[in-house]
Amino acid sequence: MIDFYDTININTPKWDSQIMIEKQKLPEVIFREYDIRGKVGSDLRLDQIYDLGRAIAYFFKQKKPDLQSIAVGMDGRIHSHEIKKQLVDAFLDSGINVRFVGLCHSPALYFAMHNTPVQAGVMITASHNPKEYNGLKLCLDKESVWGVDIKELYRDYKEDKKVACDTKGSYIEELIMPTYIDWLVEHFKDLKGMTLPAVIDCGNGAGGTVIPQLIEKMQWPNVSVLFGEVDGTYPNHEANPVDIKNMQDVKHVLQSTDAQVGIGLDGDADRMTPMTKKGILVPGDLLLGLFAQQIVKNHSGLSVAFDVKGSIALIEYLKQIGAQPIMSPTGHSIVKNTMKKHNALLAGELSCHFFFKDRYFGYDDGVYAILRLFELLKDTGKSLDQLLEVYQTMHTSREYRIAVDEHKKELIVQTVKDIFAQKEDADLLTIDGVRATMPYGWGLLRASNTQPVLSIRFESTTAEGLQKVKDDFVNALAPFFDNDYLKATFG
After folding, report:
1. For tag attachment on the chain, is the N or C end more exposed, with fewer CB atoms within 10 Å?
2. Fold classification of 179-390 (topology level)
3. CATH topology of domain 15-175
4. What does the pLDDT look like over 337-387, one tens digit per residue?
5. Tell me: the pLDDT tens digits for 453-467?
6. Which residue among 127, 144, 328, 333 is the active-site one?
7. Phi-psi category of residue 269: left, alpha or beta, with phi > 0 → left and psi -120 to 50 → alpha
8. What DSSP letter does each residue of 269-308 carry, written as one string?
C-alpha cells in the first residue's frame, strides 16, 4: 500500500534545455454537470490545482461576499494529499480560513457543512471512478454547486480570476469523523447490539474511515468488514458496487457464511448497494421504495424523488402505498435540487444514492443508508429477499454503459431523440436524455455526467416486449455503432 501521507508528484513541470514548458489550462471537459473530475496527469493536472483553487475562492466570494471559512475533506486516492495542499494554499492566499476535516468520506464533509462554522466546502474525490481519477465536489451554504455554476467557475478559472486580499487566511485541522460517528450512534440507539449477520465491503475506499469504528461502537458482533483499509490504489476491485463484478467477494461471504445481507460502498461512500442472501444485487430504485414504505407511515402523501432510470415497478408501488412519485434528471446534485423543490423527504437514484430528509440532513450518505436498511430489516423481521416481493415482476435490463468520444455524446442523444419523436406510438420524456415509452415497454438513453459514456436501460412487463424495446434502440443507434456490436452489448 502507498503511504497516504507521502506527497505524490504527478505531472510536475518538465525542463527541456533549461526552458520550462508553459503550463496549460485544465480542459473544460472536466468541469462536469455537478463536479470537477478527470484523469490525473492528463486532464486533471496537479500543476494547475493552485490556480483552480484561487478561482474557486473567487467564485465563492462572488456568490457570498461575507464568506470567511471553507471546510476541506479528502478521500484516500494517492493524489488527494497533494491536491489538498495546493487547494489549501490557494484558499489561504485568498484570505479565506480553512478547516481541514481530514481523511473522510464525502458525507462527512457534508456533515461538517451542517455542524461546523463554515460557509463552503470542498471534497477531494472522484467517487467511484478508477484509481487514475480525482476531482472536487463543491458546496456553498450547504447546497451543492452544479450545472451553470460549474460553467461559471470554469470561466473564472480560464480568466485567472483571483480574490485580492492583504491578509492570509488561517488554517486549522479538526477531524470530523469522531463527531460524525458519535452522531450516528446517538441517533440509532435501537440498533446498538444488533445481532443481524451482515458483511460490508468498503472496497479500500473512504468507507474504511468509518465502518470499522462504527461497528465497534454499535457493538455489532456479527457484522464483518471486507477491504476496510483505505488504499487509493484499490488493490482488490474498483469501489463501484453497482457493477456485479465488484461484489463477488460479498457474494462469496453470503454463500459461505450465515451472513443475511451484503453491502458494498463506493469510493467516497456516498453510495451503498445491497446484495440479498440469494445473491441479488438490489437496484437503487427498488430499495428506495422500501425506504418509502417505512417513512410514509408517519408522513401521508410523502413525495419521493428519483432519477429517470427508475423502474415502472417503483412508480406503481409508490402510488400503491400512498406516496407521490417525482421523476428527476440523473445526478446527485440534481436529484437533491429536485428533492428540495418538491419538499420531498426521500430521494434516490438507480445508482444507489439515497437522500433522507426524514431524520437527517437531506444529502446522500451511504453509511447512513446502511443504518436505515438495518433498521428496516430489524423492524419488519423480514429478509431483503422477502421485502422485495412487494414489487411487480418486470423484465429489466442492467444499465449498459457504452464508451464514446466525450464530444459526441450529446449529438448521439439528440439524434436518437429525433428518431423516436417520429415514432407514433412513443411517448417521450426528455428531462435527461430521452426516455421513450411504447405500449410494450420503455428505454432510456442519456449522456453520463461523470464519464465519456452513454447510459442505456430497458424495461418491459414481458421478455418479448423487452426485446422489442432493445431492437428499437439498436435501430436508433445504428448511425453511430455497428449493429452486431449493439446486439451483442444488449444481449
Report:
1. C
2. Alpha-D-Glucose-1,6-Bisphosphate; Chain A, domain 3 (3.40.120)
3. Alpha-D-Glucose-1,6-Bisphosphate; Chain A, domain 3 (3.40.120)
4. 899 999 999 999 999 999 999 999 999 999 999 999 999 999 999 999 999
5. 999 999 999 999 999
6. 127
7. left
8. SSBEEEEETT--B--HHHHHHHHHHHHTTTSTT-EEEEET
